[in-house]
Amino acid sequence: VQLVESGGGSVRTGGSLRLTCVASGAAVSSYCKGWFRQAPGREREGVAAIDDQGTTRYAEFVEGRFTISKRGPRLYLEMNSLKPEDTATYYCAADPLVVRFRLLNVDEWDYWGQGTQVTVS
Question: Residue 112 class from Cβ within 10 Å (0-12 exposed, 13-18 middle, 19+ buried)?
Answer without folding.
Answer: middle
